[in-house]
Amino acid sequence: MWRNSGYGVALALLLSVMATAARAEDVLAKIRDSKTITLAYREASFPFSYLDQDKKPVGYAIDLCLKIADAVKQQLKLPQLNIAYVPVTSSNRIDVIASGKADLECGSTTNNAERRKRVDFTIAHFMASSRMIVRVDDKIKNWPDLRNKKVVTTKGTTSVKSLEDRGQVRSLNMTVLEGHDHNESFKMVEDKTADAFVMDDVLLYGLKATAKNPAAYAIVGEPLTTEPYAIMLPKGDPAYKALVDREMGRIIHDGEIYKLYTKWFLSPIPNKNNLTLNMPMGYLFRESLRFPSDQVGN
Fold it and tell me: Does residue 120 lie within any of the structural domains?
């Protein structure tokens, strides 16, 4: 037994970090030996990462990950690189990457300081803002209109924290509910179990566009935060991260990011019945692409 409990805790933490680093440093070797790269995907984060009609992972972030996978294939000089997919949720996505069960997480994950303690992020591929989707008939326009209302968000996301940081939950006496995924959270609004679903605006636009009656819903509220979405990768592997960052930089500098943005946000999407989000690229994201970096303020 340790006489100094603080020393024992510190040693345990150090050993845990070392074990995580040891796993991460073998990413490229693992991919080379198995000739397989594993991509974590979301089942309902349209248009970033979702299942199409054939239950195949597709989306804006999936396209980006596939380009990174091709860069890994070239770097390792592999004649063929298999793509394996593993589904993740808002709740377990960080654990899956931190434990090395997947090599890239292709979804709609915000790069923030708390998460960077456990995983690494590459250059942001989107900038979102936290807002809410409501039923038009309820006439909810902004956050003060949620007084004594039920608000849902998806488990494991940053949206409720944004409300709490502003003191909105307590001051407005909101009841906070959690959905397992974005579809379940939105269904609570559809079923009138909740009055508002708080989430990143682009995900709300996707849910609204695919609803049975899109006109029945509105995306409202002043933006609470700016959320830089980025692909996650295991922490502590500088060689692997450098490769991923380099490919993301190339995608941006060569203009491929703009073509992908047009494909997923401005054009009809075939496997979504030619649905079009009609969401122009925001000013903050466009400006961030002028000076690509994985460094964010929060």
Answer: yes
